[in-house]
Write a structure and sequence with these properties.
- It is a single chain.
- This protein is of the alpha+beta class and about 300 residues long.
- Strands 6-7-15-11-12 form a five-stranded antiparallel β-sheet, with helices on both faces.
- It is globular.
- About 45% of the residues are buried.
């Protein structure tokens, strides 16, 4: 169902847009509609123009996301490159909008002698996605530095909420339904600029050395089970290098699935299922996915309204 006409909208609306252009795995069928807003005010205007029945899906850099080959019914709202506000609200508090990349936030904070956000350099996604899943890297987790979040509902109503309004767990966040994260207020301590910058460089170098950054991937596929690591279990199951078509378990890091060139979402999904079944059979551990899967397989409907 198309959005109602509105002369106030300033963003770009694309029809039947291939999601393979907007996901880090470089796979995914077309979205019925894809909206790239001009800014946060434009998002509010767009949401107010969308019919209540329209399914909405929010996407940042397209990492941690698998879009099925049948595409996405409804509207995808892209935050990356759109919701890109980043600044110091007051001493020790940085405001970052949902479309800002984690690495950019880390560098911004270090340049202003603020410490505690360095780990964000290891997250291959945006602030919105990091908030939605409590993303973490190298021992840090997003919500440990959150003072408040800004949200928006499908009517364009904006709110500012404290962390107390949410249930925060490992790679899982739940809270008021029908709202999406559009910005975070990060509370950080003052510290040595050179140390912060050095740590970020170290983390980025470690990421490049231990993760298959040269091939399309979506970051870690599975959550680490309690007391163990998904990568260890997958490698111990003899799955490194195993493939379904052009989708393969990385030889560099077993918790990454890479697109060797021309992989389909169906091949990736089959490989995910194969890994889970093999690990459960050999080790008795059921791995949970970190990646979000949306869209259609054939004529079957995928997820409906994706809530942040």
């Amino acid at each position: 169902m198309p959005a109602k006409s509105s002369t106030s909208l300033r963003g770009r609306l694309l029809l039947n847009e291939p999601m393979s252009r907007h996901t880090s795995w470089r796979v995914g069928g077309p979205a019925d509609r894809l909206y790239i807003p001009a800014d946060l005010d434009d998002v509010a205007a767009f949401l107010a123009s969308v019919p209540e029945s329209e399914a909405l899906h929010w996407v940042g850099l397209g990492s941690n996301l698998l879009v099925r080959d049948g595409g996405v019914r409804g509207t995808v709202i892209m935050t990356s490159g759109a919701l890109n506000g980043l600044g110091v609200m007051r001493p020790g508090v940085v405001r970052a909008e949902a479309g800002v990349a984690g690495a950019k936030v880390a560098r911004f904070c270090a340049e202003r002698e603020l410490v505690g956000a360095e780990f964000l350099a290891g997250i291959p996604g945006t602030v919105g996605g990091a908030l939605a899943m409590n993303a973490g890297a190298f021992g840090g987790e997003t919500w440990n530095i959150v003072e408040a979040v800004e949200t928006i509902d499908r009517h364009g109503q904006r709110r500012t909420r404290p962390p107390a309004d949410y249930q925060i767990a490992y790679r899982k966040v739940s809270g008021p339904r029908g709202e999406w994260f559009v910005a975070a207020h990060f509370r950080l301590a003052s510290g040595d600029t050179s140390q912060g910058k050095t740590l970020i460089k170290t983390l980025l170098a470690k990421r490049g050395a231990t993760q298959p950054t040269q091939l399309p991937n979506a970051g870690s596929v599975f959550k680490n089970p309690p007391g163990d690591h998904a990568a260890r279990l997958i490698e111990a199951s003899g799955l490194k290098g195993k493939c379904e078509g052009k989708a393969c378990v990385s030889e560099l890091h077993a918790n990454f699935i890479v697109n060797q060139g021309g992989a389909t979402a169906a091949e990736i999904e089959r490989l995910i299922a194969r890994i889970r079944a093999t690990v459960e059979n050999l080790h008795g551990v059921t791995l949970e996915t970190e990646v979000r899967v949306i869209g259609e397989v054939g004529n079957k409907s995928g997820t409906a309204d994706e809530r942040r």
